[in-house]
Amino acid sequence: MSDRLYSDPDLVQFYDIENEGGVDFDYCVGFAKDAGSVLDLGCGTGQLAAALADRRSVTGVDPAPAILDIARRRSGGQRVDWVEADARNVRLGRRFDLVLLTGHAFQVFLTPEDRQAVLATIAAHLGA
Asked: What is the pTM of this model?
């Protein structure tokens, strides 16, 4: 990951300013209302994952350790299973009722091979 916003501990504090939840955040919270388990791929600082974790099992995956440090410290972060991994190849050995990629998470996968790999990750983790 080359963007310092995601990797530099001095800059990641600005991530939430740049990616503040809004209508899409509210939509995802409502969309997940019936899900007993959620996998949040590209979870960033965990804003959505932490909000969803009060009523269900939530796992947040992100490749940026500095971003996950913020996620772990956020209110509700202790209820989320945080995993440092790449969405193209992470395999958690379990399935989820819902898999989310919010914000700009999917658009960082620029090649057809990368997009196919992420879709394979979703398929490997979705449903029973």
From this structure: 0.85
